[in-house]
Predict the structure.
Amino acid sequence: MKKIYYAVALVLVACQPKHSDTEHAASQSNDSKSTTTAVIDESKQDEPTVYHASRTVLTDLINTKLEVSFDWTKSWLIGKETLQAKPHYYASNELILDAKGMEIKSVSMTGKTVQYVYKEDVLKIQLDKKYTRDETFTVVIDYIAKPDERKTGGSNAITSDKGLYFINPRGEEPNKMPQIWTQGETESNSVWFPTIDSPNSKTKEEIYITVEDKYATLSNGKLISSTKNANGTRTDYWKQELPHAPYLFMMGVGEFKVVKDTYKRPDGTSMEVNYYVEPQWEKDAKAIFGETPAMIGFFSQLLGVEYAWDKYSQIIVRDYVSGAMENTGAVIFGEYAYKTERELLDENDNSTIAHELFHHWFGDLVTCESWSNLTLNESFANYSQFLWDEHRHGLDEAEYQALQEASGYFASADQGGYHDLVWFDYKSREDMFDGHSYNKGGRILHMLRKYIGDDAFFLGLKNYLKQNQFKAAEFHQLRLAFEEVSGEDLNWFFNQWYQGKGHPLLDVSYATDATANTVSITVNQKQKKEFGLFKLPVDVTVYDDRGATTSRQWFNDESTTVTIPTQGTVKNVIFDAEAALLCKLEEKKDASWYAFQWNNSKHFIHRKNALQKIPSSSPEASRIAQEALKDSFWDIRSTAIEKIGKMSGDSKTASISRLKQLASSDSVSAVRVAAITALAGMISGPELEQLCTESIQKDQSYSVINAALLQLSKVNSKAALEASKKLEDEPSGKIQAGISMIYAKYGDADQIAYYERIFKSNLLQGFDKIGVMNSMTFFASRQETKIQRRTLPIFESEYKKGGMYTEMFMPQYIKYLKDNLQNSIEKYKAEEEKAKKDGNTNAADIAHGKLTDAEALMGDYDKMIAGFPKEEEGGH
């Protein structure tokens, strides 16, 4: 799963003129309940911890056959399941399944009804005899799944555990295509079919989906047949013969267009690669997903393990509850993935596409045996983004993204706390979907790769996949696979990075000795004591008269000094030459060393560090910044723009001409945005107005146009409003988010019609909708009560149907408006009292009317707030 990290600190201030998880027990133990083990530290007997063990395997699922149809008006799934299984080891006369919120109609074996008990989301079936581990049995379960009628929970990672979703099933929302889709991770597929809903369970799959003939369907495996029925329905039969975990089962139903693509396997055969999109997006599907076949080929070759599954389909759905999900051969994406070719000029979702694809090896082929081991799934999917960028766009792009991933881990840990990477005492299993399992895990894999070398690393991955394919694994098996290849005991590495928490905080200093021809490197580990000391093998490159000499040094103690022989003048030392170490680093270097580092380093991270760290007062700083403006890599150019903005007036003046060129013609829109923003503080108002006007008229990038609108508004708000008006018909949520901000800051009451119209359209998706709602909130706060009231139906409608982020942030919007309205109420009261005191009846009546309207609106806000879920009741 790709969690979309979308940190929204409500940015209403920025617009001003001055920018419960419900844990459902489902683990298999002898009593079928979720089991945890209390482990008591004798030194802290008042602080017991919880150990989330892997679920005990009592039963092996062999094949799950589902026959399903739907009652759209009731949001029900009518199902029949034929389940083939056997006892795992010990003989048993009982089958225990997870089945959440269902109506069980009957359970039978060989045509005869058998006894069962269905209680607290657990279905216990009394088999017709005691079976040994060598005997298989088959049970048939008739049931109705009623996902909307059960109490649901959610988390920050996966905002709902409903499992089965009917979206606009009765067609009440004119701009939203009715559809059905599922979301199984972590343990929610047992909402729509009885199963052993645990990651260490595996089963083959068959599913017959009966729908109206107008609907397309998608599930795992191959589409074996599609049969039209006499009543206007059609039954599609999907079959997957290779076993996978139940949480990876998937269904999708709707009037999707299926855009076909192919991947050619090494043996010359072709495999279907299809993209399921709403009709209006059919023309954009290959622009969105078109890199997929190349990714499949690249990952297959890199890993030495060919893509194992029958097909690869990707579908975009409405109101999705997370980022994307790696259902085997049938990946689901949220609506944020919809982008026109013009929007793709600014950003694409290839990193997420790569992430979900890589899961088909790490997660689908080999599955973590428990949620405590989730990093075995997510860290590899995270690291795939580095691997793809390195292959497709070069090492600079990969390292740039690696910096973002490391920053994401640091931010996640600072906010949510530090824990072991393999985390057995989590509070909720969905807490595992954080910056540790993903970001930190990915960076740890890169460190291991650089430590043992590429050949050993990728051979170790191949062995791990081959040895554990179609099974569940824990992190020790990963360690053993690398040890088998490298011949080295790697417990030290796995102990500190997988079974420990935190990261090194390093203070690095250098001292040269010209007489002894040495350079000494002192590293002090300054991280929290609870993190312990790290054993750090670090590649160090020394530049002297011989050139560059790299050696591996070990820094294991609280303070370690290593001395390296040199020849002639030491010109620079690069600690962590491969830019691989996950740490926070404080480093002391002379400006001349940073200048040499800029001129001679190969890694983007080292060059960026030199550009940022060289003091602006250094004579070399201006030259380096000017050179960086012409660098081949876009983020270096952007960093140079930022650097120049911090320099003295003369250095800024010398850069204006080049910045204007970048603003108008750089190949990367992010650089053009940075240049326009920087120039706003460097050139005159008329020059800036001309630059921004030309960018709005000529640039194809919506992000550039938005940046130009924002800067134009600061020098000529009327011109910005006029330009925004001309862009209202642009078919992009991105540009509408920019327009809405201009209207929020400078618009008048007439712009309410814009907000009413844009929310009735089908244009706003995902995060863009949040941006427009944010702007509308501030816009409303600036208006009279009668205009502000016209936004209330929009807020109410979007809260009901706008999706997870709208629901998440709506309380903030309404609270902001309430606080602002309360100020107005106090003002109207004061005006009324003053008018009465002055004997001005007309003014008093006007103030009283305003007060009455404002108090009525306040009451409506209170009613809306009363309908928001409380945190303790499972609200988000």
The two ends are 19 Å apart (CA to CA).
